[in-house]
Amino acid sequence: xxxxxxxxxxxxxxxxxxxxxxxxxxxxxxxxxxxxxxxxxxxxxxxxxxxxxxxxxxxxxxxxxxxxxxxxxxxxxxxxxxxxxxxxxxxxxxxxxxxxxxxxxxxxxxxxxxxxxxxxxxxxxxxxxxxxxxxxxxxxxxxxxxxxxxxxxxxxxxxxxxxxxxxxxxxxxxxxxxxxxxxxxxxxxxxxxxxxxxxxxx
Amino acid sequence: xxxxxxxxxxxxxxxxxxxxxxxxxxxxxxxxxxxxxxxxxxxxxxxxxxxxxxxxxxxxxxxxxxxxxxxxxxxxxxxxxxxxxxxxxxxxxxxxxxxxxxxxxxxxxxxxxxxxxxxxxxxxxxxxxxxxxxxxxxxxxxxxxxxxxxxxxxxxxxxxxxxxxxxxxxxxxxxxxxxxxxxxxxxxxxxxxxxxxxxxxxxxxxxxxxxxxxxxxxxxxxxxxxxxxxxxxxxxxxxxxxxxxxxxxxxxxxxxxxxxxxxxxxxxxxxxxxxxxx
Lengths: 202, 278
Fold this sequence. Notes:
The structure holds two protein chains of two kinds. Chain A has helices spanning 2-33, 38-61, 74-90, 110-127, 163-173; strands spanning 70-73, 95-100, 105-108, 131-139, 142-149, 176-177, 180-181, 183-187, 196-201. Chain A is an alpha+beta fold. Chain A has a five-stranded mixed beta sheet with strand order 2-4-5-9-8. Chain A has a two-stranded antiparallel ribbon with strand order 1-3. A two-stranded antiparallel sheet of chain A has the order 6-7. In chain A, helix 3 (74-90) runs parallel beside helix 4. Chain A is globular, with a radius of gyration of 18 Å. The model of chain A has no long low-confidence stretch (mean pLDDT 92). Chain B is α/β, with parallel strands linked by helices. In chain B, 44% of the residues lie in helices and 9% in strands. Chain B contains eleven helices and five strands, in the order E-H-E-H-E-H-E-H-E-H-H-H-H-H-H-H. In chain B, strand 3, helix 3 and strand 4 (85-90) form a beta-alpha-beta unit. In chain B, helix 7 (145-156) runs antiparallel to helix 8 (165-178), helix 8 (165-178) packs antiparallel against helix 9 (182-195) and helix 9 (182-195) packs antiparallel against helix 10 (199-211). Chain B is globular and about 50 Å long. At the A-B interface, helix 1, helix 2, strand 1 and helix 3 of A face helix 1, helix 4 and helix 5 of B.
């Protein structure tokens, strides 16, 4: 099994290096010709994220996934999601707004959480009419990261448990601190009228 | 947004195509002077002779060497001024596992592929942080430890210092240790550990105890201070061989059960000697 993991990890690594070469060539062309190819770069990064996510899911199934917890600045995290998603959503006339009231660092796995938020914003964008909002708040030792939209909301609650959701829930619970585990809640209680994704981390 | 046109960049990567890609992206954030280093020795040589402002270093350097080894060599032998930006570049998700488990970390790391905008965001953030600590770095380098501590104490409660809470606590403990106040250093590190299990704080306690010659009594010989359950998976093809084992560097192999080893080598693998503080 370890050999399989090595082969997969090596393949993902090489593919991401190739994708980076492709993205740098696009960036060079954009600069040389004064054009914007943001959607092409978005597709490249989405492909890389998919590869990473696949590897993470495989780790979860093997029960050897671990969260790499480091103190991360929450507003930086929100800025990165904004940078990754805003232009793409704008091409479909959806506005992404960010409301982050957390100034401090929070111990979390930056890459896993950023990917989960990117994924949640992508999902919200698929159903939203015109707006998606990402917000961050703290209460009583918990960090809440919330993605809301103004779409029709989930048809059934709890929603059908797909692989993506299973992965997200298990990644949330990998965040532990003083016997408290992170969790994921999906509801239709969005302030914007649609679905609401809430990730709570201790 | 900081101006990067006057900054000297050094790109370290053994793969020519990857080097070109990194240079292209750096040029998009405004870089004008971009130097290349093609291997480990070449990079150390360039950094020693003319320290760049910003280093973009790939994690896989070939010949069994990793960017993490390079970073540790640079930090341990004081070849990297506090003002220099060291950014690790990697296609590996698992590098974040390394960062969360070792004592000596880069200013930041970025996972390939990434856009010029993302690199810019990350660099701007580090520039802001270094600017925040600029006065402190200066006093620390002059070994004016009382002044350095005073600056940290003042910034601790400031609004601008909020995002850097852990870094302020860490630097405070470092100053205690550097100034010889080992009891205060130990207390500072333990205080941090009461809240979070940071590997650098664990290492800090060990360093403080070592300086107090109490290490043997407090740390059982067989107990590693890194969690034993962590696993690192690296691509088989590019797994760096353990050419150069070092304290705290998890070899990028599957299971990590590092135990504290001898902390400081007297000479480094590249034959360089420590540079006195400037």
